[in-house]
Amino acid sequence: MNSANRSELVDALGHAAKWLAIAVAVALLAGTASAFFLFALQWATDVRSSHRWLIGLLPLAGLAVGWLYLHFGQKVEAGNNLLIDEIHDPQKIVPLRMAPLVLGGTVVSHLFGASVGREGTAVQMGGALADQLTHLLKLPAADRRIILMAGISAGFSSVFGTPLAGAVFGLEVLAIGRMRYDALLPCMLAAIVADQVGLLWGVQHVHYAIPAIPAVSACGLAGVAVAGAAFGLVGRLFAGFTHALAARLKRLIAYAPLRPLVGGAVVAAAVWLFTADRYIGLGIPTIVDAFRQPVAPYDFAAKFAFTVVSLGSGFKGGEVTPLFYIGATLGNALAPILHLPFPLLAGLGFVAVFAGAANAPIASTLMAIELFGAEVGIYAMLACVVSYLFSGHTGIYRSQRIGQSKHRAVPEGIKLGELSANDERQRNQAPDLSLSN
């Protein structure tokens, strides 16, 4: 072995040892925080289920969460988008207060009946806790980007029990059509160890099962492709409606804490009027039912509406588990139309609506394989990729960048949240040819 090869080997070993140590530290923090969060979430769900009257206090809970963020959390209110921005353009350490604020806000949201998820909380806690190591270890900006990505992977992995999907999600969520492979090892290590840390704490994840995967056929692939397009369009609508409602409420209601108060009043009233308890919280029992038996064909639309109002008005949590619910029940409803088994389409919808809404088709495909088995891989990849295509240049994370456009020319590096304004400027600058003749 010559000196050049020896030097490269030493560098590789040093790099691996460095990131192994850092990734394990990130995983211990994120996995422990996620375990505590999941236990708290289960407690909140159980208490709400046994004391239904708590739903009537949802507006006041929203007011309290809004007040806390107004006075103590304005610097971290952007949540996942703040983490994405800091990875692309590192400025300053994410305040540690992000972790307790989002944890408390999410538990309160679930305790009183908002329709929100949990991934946003785990990802934000993972990112915020990981970033504290940046200051402690005096890491440079390039390493800080990687440690934040590892924190995202660890949080996602530990809250869902899907380390492969978590590792890739931390790489894929930053930019459409582009991933950073320099962070692959840290994200993978953090995701694997964080999942194991959660299991050691006693976390038990829900198991979803597709009893039988049909053999790959032309008719089956065609049906899955059609379903994938529907999943992508629903993911696109979900992101669009949630952002539009949030923007409209900001224009109409200047005082931030009043927005979740109004949204909470709408959700609570709808629950009481229509006995719609199945559409609040995580909705895990309904997701499980979608794999076992036909469910109401309007379940996906109802969960869609409850979640848009909850998140759009300012309740904390996340979008992903509600997207799982929407996707699983939509797939269940589409199954008889497309002549496919409803457990299969429920599973594909579970991952593919998320793939379109988050622009994460690879992580979503890996999640399907981890949850349902390798046999679903071909169908899952097709559904997730088609969903990703049909969701367009939209998404639940407005700070996500355009790395490579899907099907039309868009400026590279622009944020999704800035794309509509850019399109409007281009239309205004375009020459008017209507009078040229």
Automatic annotation (TrEMBL):
UniProt-listed Pfam families: Voltage_CLC (PF00654)
Domain of life: Bacteria
InterPro entries on file: Cl-channel_core (IPR014743), ClC (IPR001807), ClC-type_chloride_channel (IPR050368)
Subcellular location: Membrane
Principal location class: membrane
Keyword Membrane included in the entry's annotation: yes
Keyword Transmembrane among UniProt keywords: yes
Membrane-spanning ranges: 20-41, 53-72, 146-171, 183-202, 208-231, 252-274, 378-397
Membrane topology type: Multi-pass membrane protein
Alphabetic keyword roster: Membrane, Transmembrane, Transmembrane helix
Name of the molecule in the record: Voltage-gated chloride channel family protein
Species this chain originates from: Massilia norwichensis
